[in-house]
Each structure stands twice: as structure tokens, then as C-alpha cells.
Amino acid sequence: MGRHRVSGMQLANLTGVSQNYIASRLRDESPFTVNDIENICKALGEDPGSLWAAAIQHLGEH
To answer: Is CATH 1.10.260 the classification given to domain 8-61?
Structure first.
């Protein structure tokens, strides 16, 4: 979101979910689903496979 300079409200609009839905996940009150991640990647023009690969690499470094 930061790289794309997108707010939670904008992300909610782009993905077709409520602002409360996104906000609860950003506050770590509820988990993102795989579908959420795929929809967010699509909305931001990102490749989900690249995101997963970067996340796995990051986990391996810590």
C-alpha cells in the first residue's frame, strides 16, 4: 500500500470490500485470506506469485 500510496479506504474501494473489512485486517484483528491477497495484488497491479516468493524469502531471513 505504501509503495502505491493507497489508503485503506482506497484499497477497500479498489477491491470491492468495506473499509471496515480492510481496517480490521490492517489492525491485525482478522487475517487476510488468500483471496484477499489475490484481489489486493490484482487491484494494485502486483503479481501474487512474486509477493508470495518475497514473503517466503523474508521468513527465511528471520
So the answer is: yes
